[in-house]
Amino acid sequence: MSAATTHPAAGARAGSTSGRLPGAVRLSLVRAGVEVRQFWRERDAVVFVFAYPILMLAIFSTVFGNEDQGTGVTEVGYAQYFLPGMVATGIMLTSFQSLVISIAVERDDGTLRRLRATPLPSTAYFGGKVLLTLATSLVQTAALLAVAALAFDVPMPTDPADWVTFAWVFVLGTATGTICGVGFSSLPRSGRSASAVVTPVVLVLQFISGVFFAFFALPSWMQTVASVFPLKWIAQGMRSVFLPDEMAALETSGSWQLAATAGVLVAWLIVGLVVAVRTFRWRRRDDG
Amino acid sequence: MTSTTRPSPAPPAGAPGRPADRGADHGVDHGREVREHPAERAAVRVRGLAKRYGPKQAVDGLDIDLATGEIVAVLGPNGAGKTTTVEILEGFRARDGGEVRVLGEDPARAGRAWRARIGVVAQDSRDQAELSVAESVRATARYYPAPRDPDEVVAAVGLTAKAGARVRSLSGGQRRRLDVALGVVGGPELLFLDEPTTGFDPQARRTFWDLVLRLRDAGTTILLTTHDLAEAAHLADRVAVVRDGRVVAEGTPETLGGPAARTPVVTWTADGVRHTERTDAPTALAAHLMATAAGPDGEVVDLCIARPSLEDVYLGLVTDGADA
C-alpha cells in the first residue's frame, strides 16, 4: 500500500477535509452565475422568453388597435388595456413555464444527478433558479414596458403608490410562479415531454385569466374558474397599476381587490412550497 | 501491475480438480476470506445488500469491501445489479435491506460533509452544455470545502487546450474526461467510475487509464464498474463479479476464479486431430510433445500454450448455470 501513503496530489488541496462547507447563500450566488450564463447562451430560449410578450402585445394591439376598451366614461387604448395581461403572462412564462421545462430537462440530462453527488445543498440549487427567474423577469418586464411606452404610447403610472403595487405583485407573482414551477416539474415524465405538458396549462390559464381577452367580457363561470389560479390575480393586480382607477368598475367585484390578490398569491406560494418540497425528485419518475 | 503490492486474497478454498465449469458457489466461499479488512482501512463495507424493483430482486444479498486506496472493478452482465448497487453506495437510491458503510457513514443518511468526500462519474451526462470547460470545473470546485485547483485538474485530464471551449463542442472522449475532472475536483477520498471508457478509441482509453492510475497513486479509492475486461485487468487491484444481484467471485485479476480456472491450456494437432489438454506443467507437456508428436521438421503442428484470460474466466463465471 505504498501508493496510499504518499498522496502526491494532497498538496494541491487547500486543507484536506477540515475545510468548512460553503454556505447556502454563497452557493446560491454561484449557482445563479451558472444559471444566468447558461440561459444567455441558449439564444433561442432567450429570444422566445423576451420577445413573446412583446410580440403578443404588438399583434393584439395592431389587430384590435381601434377597439378602445372601457366603461363608456373612461376609455383606454387597446394596448394600454392589454399591457397588464402581457406583464402577467410574461411573469408566468419566465417563472412557471421556464422552470417546469428547465428542471425536467435537467433531471434528464444529468444535471440534477451530478449536483446531488456534490455537497451543494438543494436550497442553493433553488436559490440559483429563483435569482435567474428574478433577473429574466425583470429584464423581460422592463423591455415590455419600454416597448409599450415608446412604440404604443401607453402612459406609464406616475403615482408612486402604483409602482409600489407593481413591485409587490411582481415579486409575489414571480415567487409563486417559481415555486409552483418547481412543484409542477415533477409531473412531466421527461425533459422532452415537459413543454408539451406545461404549454396547454399555460395557454388555458392565459385565455381564462383575462390575458388575451378583456376579463369582464368572459363568461362568469370562466371567471370563477380563473379566480382559483394565480395568473388572474397577477393580471388584475397589474391592471390596477396601469389602468385608470375608474376602470376598477369593470372588474367583476367592482374593485381592484388588492388584499385578495395578495391573499391568493400567498396561499399558492405556501401550497406550492409544500407540494414542491414533498414531490421534488432528483431522478426521473420512471427511474426505479 | 501495481496490484502485486496490494493485499491479495487468500487462495480460493473451493474446487481444485474442477476444470472449466466453475460453479458460482465457490467464488462466494473464497470471497468471505478476502473481505476482512481492518475497519479504519475500509472505505466501503457492504453486507447483505438487498433492493427490489417490483417483482424483480435487483440486488440480493450482496457483500463487497473496498480498502482505502485500492481500485476495485465490479463486473457483471447488464441487469446483474451493478448500477443499482453503486447508486445505493452513492446515496442516490434507498436500499431495502442490508448494511452499508461508505467512508464510515450510511449513504442513505449521510449529509453534505460526506458528499464532499466522494466523487461520482456517472454514465451518459449531457449537462452544462453551454458552459466552457473551465467555467464548469471552477463552478463545481466552489461547492466543496477543500477543492483541488480547477486549472490543475483540467490539466490533469488533458483538457487545458480545450479550457475555453463550450462543453457542447467536446468529443465523446473529451466529455468523459471532463466528467472525471468534475468528479475529482472536490478532492474525493472515494471515486465512483461508472463504465468510464465506453465509446473511447484505444488511444484515448489508454490515456484515461493512466489518469485513473495516477488518481489511485494519489490515494484515491476507486470503485469502477465496467464491461471492459481488459480495462478491469489493467486497472483493478481486485475484481468482483456480480450476477443475479450478488457477488459470485472476487479476487485479483490474476487469481479470479481460482487456480483451476487459470490452468494453462495446451492445444496441438497430431495426425490431423486437434488435441486439448489442461495442465499445470505446460512446458513439460510441450517437451513431451516435441519428443513424441513432432513432425519431421521438429515442429508440433499448431502448438499453442495459453492461459485463460480474465475474459475467459469472467465468461465462465457469468454463464455457468445461468437461466438465460
UniProtKB/TrEMBL annotation, chain A:
One of the record's GO cellular component terms: ATP-binding cassette (ABC) transporter complex
GO biological process: response to antibiotic
InterPro entries documented for this protein: ABC2_TM, ABC2_TM_bact-type, ABC_2_transport, Nod_factor_ABC_transporter
Chief place where the protein resides: membrane
TM annotation in the entry: 45-65, 85-105, 126-151, 163-184, 196-218, 256-277
PROSITE patterns, A to Z: ABC_TM2
Membrane topology reported for the UniProt record: Multi-pass membrane protein
Assigned keywords, A-Z: Antibiotic resistance, Cell membrane, Membrane, Transmembrane, Transmembrane helix, Transport
Location(s), subcellular: Cell membrane; Membrane
Family: Belongs to the ABC-2 integral membrane protein family.
Name the record gives this protein: Transport permease protein
Automatic annotation (TrEMBL), chain B:
Main subcellular location of this protein, as a coarse class: membrane
Biased composition (Basic and acidic residues): 19-39
SMART domains with a match to the protein in the record: AAA (SM00382)
Region annotated Disordered, chain positions: 1-39
All residue ranges annotated as the ABC transporter domain in the record: 44-269
Compartment(s) of residence: Cell membrane
CDD domains named among the record's database cross-references: ABC_DR_subfamily_A
Gene Ontology molecular function: ATP binding; ATP hydrolysis activity
Domain of life: Bacteria
SUPFAM superfamilies per UniProt: P-loop containing nucleoside triphosphate hydrolases
Pfam families attached to this UniProt entry: ABC_tran
Record GO cellular component, one term: plasma membrane
The keyword Membrane belongs to this UniProt entry's keyword annotation: yes
Name the record gives this protein: ABC-2 type transport system ATP-binding protein
Organism: Krasilnikoviella flava
